[in-house]
Amino acid sequence: MFEIELDRQVVQAGDEILGWITVQGEDVESVEVAFQGEEILGANDISHSLVLPVADEKLKLNSKGDLTRQEFRLKVPDDAPPSYASRDIRCQYTVKASVKRGFWRRKMIRKLHVTVMPALPEGLVAMPEELEVEHDNLRLIARLDQNVVLTGEPLSGTLFFDTKDPDAKLPTRLSFRFASIEESISKGYSHRHVLNLESHDIDVDQELKIPFTGFFEFPISEHAEPSGTWNLFKVHYGFRVTFYDHEGKDHRASTMVRVVRDLGPWMESQQD
Fold it and tell me: Which pLDDT tens digit goes with each residue over 241-260?
């Protein structure tokens, strides 16, 4: 019999994990437990992948023979990046217990996966932000209600379109886009993938009454990955506003939006 138990499998950087190990009916020579983590680029292609260890906290238990719920404690590193999983990229953690047995018998190993939640951002202030696109007497303003958004909440804002010349030709289309992008920052591995792209397009009637106002909203899933920079990759969100003039040329402005994991439900569960 060989089992490991943990008091929890969802933690944050800097936390301590309490665990127990049970080994019975085996010729035990030594026992080691470890908290290990790694970032992986190319997770689905072992022939072309890049792996970077980000945690390796080990503890040897001075015990031989049977163990019955032997207690151990492991520290999650203060700088441990949060867990992450997509088709091509991983940041994953495990608690691994290894039992070395005598008479050249193979080592026994058990693993439990651990999720490291992102830390609460410090000094981050959500503020309105305004983007302006102006060309040939045409002006489009998109105003974000705030440039920092929690997962599960929408990115919302208002638009204003006007012209300085009542005889100016109006644009043919207005476009608003919100995208999340996963991108490698390692020189040894090239990767860029659009995780999600939402767009709102407005075909402009040339008889449109000016000035024109409206609003836009882009939902963000509660399961969306938050903005962040790991050691090998980053996830970022961008908002772009564009108008296409009567010649088909595009005129645009863009900005970054910070998406933050809503830790409220998880923190409430820790208090129950």
Answer: 999 988 889 999 999 999 99
Q: Where are the alpha helices (DSSP H) in 225-271?
A: 264-271
pTM for the full predicted model: 0.86
CA distances from residue 134 to 141, 161, 208, 247 in whole angstroms, order as listed: 9, 10, 18, 15
Distance, C-alpha 170 to centroid of its chain: 40
Contact 18, 76 (CB under 8 A): no
Q: Which residues contact 117 (CB under 8 A, 6 or more apart)?
A: 10, 11, 12, 82, 83, 261, 263, 266
Collapse the DSSP code of 88 into the 3-class scheme (helix H, G, I; strand E, B; otherwise coil) and give the result. Answer: coil
Nearest to 216 by CA among 154, 170, 163, 260: 154
Indicate the average pLDDT of the chain. 90
| Number of Cβ within a 10 Å radius of residue 109 | 11
Mean pLDDT of 86-109: 87
Domains of the chain and any CATH numbers:
2-117 (2.60.40.640), 129-266 (2.60.40.840)
Residue appearing with tokens 């108008």: 243
Tens digits of per-residue pLDDT, 159-188? 999 988 887 888 999 999 999 999 999 987
Token digits for 270?
């820790």
- Give the count of alpha carbons within 13 A of 105, CB side only: 13
